[in-house]
């Protein structure tokens, strides 16, 4: 890309019922007004967010909770879903809204069926269990949208050799399950998979919020400094965060990027370009790793051989 303007593609993960009902419409309105494209990845099954209380045992969990104020971001109703309160089925309750997002010109894809189950239990699932979990999401996507999914992006950037195989079997155009630097073909346990990964390259907002080195006024300038010109920049946003209390900050970031001449693109456009030149994709191993500001482990892209 040389001295060309930085490219930025945004994918929006929708984790919860509240995020779907409240955050998604707010983000769609903002993005349409600013003429910024984005891909929405939906959780399509039960919202069992309340069961994620088991994450208290992860290193760094309490530190992150104190920084981001999860009660303010998610609300008590969401934090009790699937435990003291019933788990609302997102796809069934919100199908009209999901179709409206697609019909207004935004690409849509799969985040998951059950966000809690994928993020917290994928590592222990067999191939058959992983297939069943993902196929539930595929079936609900097809029921809602009337067409097969072209993409998926895993909750918490959690992948296994089984989930990569399930993606290949679904014939996805691309996936976005990893943290990394450039698009690549993933390899795990010595097996190379054919579904390209377009990894998240930038920190998420919740990884920066509340840290003394990143007061709110410093976050937008920090993002702008991170933008690279030699490879596409991928930002993962969340309907529960940028679509709620931090919608204004997200708007500031988009406006600052526009003033700086950033070229907004879509994940789908990037994937289509990759499909034209598949031989240019490096093969990279994926492994569990850590990301600054996030508790637990995520799937990370390792350097190409």
What does the model show?
- The chain is of the alpha/beta class and 305 residues long.
- The protein has helices spanning 17-34, 61-68, 70-79, 90-103, 115-121, 127-145, 161-169, 216-226, 247-259, 267-276, and strands at 7-14, 39-43, 108-112, 151-152, 174-175, 185-188, 191-192, 233-238, 263-265, 283-289, 298-301.
Structural class label: alpha/beta
Helix content estimate? 25-40%
Alpha-carbon Rg, integer: 18 Å
Count every beta strand, where a strand is a DSSP E run of 2 or more residues.
11
Mean pLDDT across all residues, rounded? Answer: 90
> Regions with pLDDT < 50 over 5+ consecutive residues?
53-58, 64-68, 76-80
| Helix-strand topology string | EHEHHHEHHEHEEEHEHEHEE
End-to-end distance: 23 Å
Largest sheet features = 5 strands, parallel
Choose one word for the global shape: globular
> What is the overall number of helices?
10
Quote the beta fraction: 15-25%
Present the secondary structure layout.
Elements: E1 7-14, H1 17-34, E2 39-43, H2 61-68, H3 70-79, H4 90-103, E3 108-112, H5 115-121, H6 127-145, E4 151-152, H7 161-169, E5 174-175, E6 185-188, E7 191-192, H8 216-226, E8 233-238, H9 247-259, E9 263-265, H10 267-276, E10 283-289, E11 298-301
Parallel strand pairs: 1-2, 1-8, 1-9, 2-3, 4-5, 6-10
Antiparallel strand pairs: 6-7, 10-11
Helix pairs in contact: 1-4, 1-9, 4-6, 6-7, 8-9
């Amino acid at each position: 890309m040389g001295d060309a303007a930085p490219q930025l593609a945004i994918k929006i993960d929708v984790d919860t019922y509240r995020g779907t009902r409240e955050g998604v419409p707010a983000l769609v309105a903002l993005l349409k007004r600013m003429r910024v494209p984005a891909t929405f990845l939906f959780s399509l099954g039960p919202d069992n967010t309340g069961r994620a209380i088991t994450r208290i045992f992860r290193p760094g969990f309490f530190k992150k909770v104190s920084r981001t104020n999860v009660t303010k971001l998610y609300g008590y109703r969401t934090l009790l879903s699937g435990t003291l309160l019933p788990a609302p089925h997102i796809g069934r309750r919100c199908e009209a809204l999901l179709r409206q997002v697609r019909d207004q010109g935004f690409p849509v894809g799969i985040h998951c069926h059950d966000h809690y189950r994928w993020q917290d239990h994928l590592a222990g699932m067999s191939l058959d269990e992983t297939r069943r979990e993902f196929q539930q999401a595929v079936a609900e996507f097809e029921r809602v949208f009337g067409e097969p999914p072209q993409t998926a992006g895993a909750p918490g950037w959690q992948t296994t050799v089984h989930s990569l195989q399930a993606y290949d079997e679904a014939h996805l155009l691309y996936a976005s399950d990893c943290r990394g630097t450039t698009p690549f073909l993933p390899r795990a346990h010595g097996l190379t998979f054919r579904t390209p990964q377009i990894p998240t390259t930038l920190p998420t907002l919740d990884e920066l919020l509340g840290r003394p080195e990143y007061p709110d006024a410093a976050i937008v300038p920090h993002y702008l400094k991170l933008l690279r010109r030699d490879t596409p920049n991928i930002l993962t946003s969340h309907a529960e965060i940028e679509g709620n209390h931090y919608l204004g900050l997200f708007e500031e970031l988009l406006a600052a990027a526009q003033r700086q001449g950033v070229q907004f693109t879509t994940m789908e456009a990037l994937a289509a370009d990759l499909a034209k030149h598949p031989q240019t994709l490096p093969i990279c191993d994926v492994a569990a790793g850590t990301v600054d500001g996030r508790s637990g482990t995520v799937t990370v892209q390792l350097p190409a051989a």
